[in-house]
Amino acid sequence: MATVRARTQTATQSTGRFISCYIDLDPSNTYGVFLMYSNDYGVTWSAPVTIQTGVATTTFYIVNDSLDRLWIYYSKIVGGAIKLFYKTTIDLGVTLSAEVEVV
To answer: Cα–Cα distance between 90 and 68 in angstroms, integer?
Structure first.
């Protein structure tokens, strides 16, 4: 599997944890959004966590709110149209909210 790591975005949580979200090719060779984190100022990083596969574009956004909840926005093709969605996580992707379409 090729690695593209396009459009990396980072955030820092109140604990000092670094978060890196990025677009890469998933196992089916389509784009996906992935997350990695570091608890030691970037010396070591977690294994990648899959946030969403089959995204439509390499454009996505992350927001870390005051409660250290991470909001991940991305687009997908649905019924021939590109639509915007988001998921949230409070535990770095171990559990993810249901996908929500932004209308």
So the answer is: 7
Q: Could you tell me which residues are beta bridge partners of residue 62?
A: 72
* Cα distances (Å, whole numbers) of residue 67 to 33, 48, 60, 74: 22, 23, 21, 21
Q: pLDDT tens digit string along 34-48? A: 999 999 988 999 998
73 DSSP β-pair partners: 61, 86
Closest by CA position to 36, among listed 25, 23, 27: 23
pLDDT at residue number 5: 62
Burial (CB count within 10 angstroms: exposed 0-12, middle 13-18, buried 19+), residue 74? buried
Whether residue 46 contacts residue 59, with contact meaning beta carbons closer than 8 Å, is answered with no
Q: For the chain, what are the domain ranges?
A: 6-101
The pTM (predicted TM-score) of the whole model is 0.80
